[in-house]
Amino acid sequence: MQDKTSPDPVFSNPPPPPPPSLVPIKQPQSTLPHSLTQHNKPILPPPAYPVYYFFYGTLTSAIQVQRILDLPEEPHLREAKVSGYAIAKWGDYPALINGEQGQVVTGSSYLVKSEEEAQKLAHYETNAYEVTDCWIFFKDGEEPDKVVGKVFMYAGDAQALLEQRFDRKLWGKQMGGNLGF
């Protein structure tokens, strides 16, 4: 078992990301580690902290992020978007799911400074969402204008969510996965 805190030697010096218009469209392949693909976009290995997270729901409020992370002042959130995703409703909450190529979700982004901040955000989001890698495109004119970052995606069956059916997969995950199915 590999130590999760040490970098994977295969990815120690990744090449710079290609411009978004040159990224080849690929379907996820089960033979690749999940961090290398996301929907139809190959993704580089996650960067070390600090790393930008894209927010699309309640976390687009600087006051909410400040409260969750127990920050002394309101954090700087950058207006941003991600492409290839869609928003569906999970009860009263927005849930990010894979969308069509070119489909855009707007929100904001925050530079997460440590594993501790990332864990606080994950605790807030619950296991109904999982962290995945994504391209974040900033809309505020500041630099950088795009980065490989992270986003919380719906962890259950997106089709069940769209059809407003009971999501057995997510329910099993929330119950600890010890249900025998």
UniProtKB/TrEMBL annotation:
SUPFAM superfamilies from the UniProt entry: Gamma-glutamyl cyclotransferase-like
Domain of life (superkingdom): Eukaryota
InterPro entries hit by this protein: AIG2-like, AIG2-like_dom, GGCT-like, GGCT-like_sf
Gene3D superfamilies: Gamma-glutamyl cyclotransferase-like (3.10.490.10)
Region feature Disordered, mapped onto this chain: 1-41
Record field: compositional bias (Pro residues): 12-22
Keyword entries, A-Z: Transferase
Family that this chain belongs to: Belongs to the gamma-glutamylcyclotransferase family.
Protein known as: Putative gamma-glutamylcyclotransferase
Organism name: Aspergillus welwitschiae
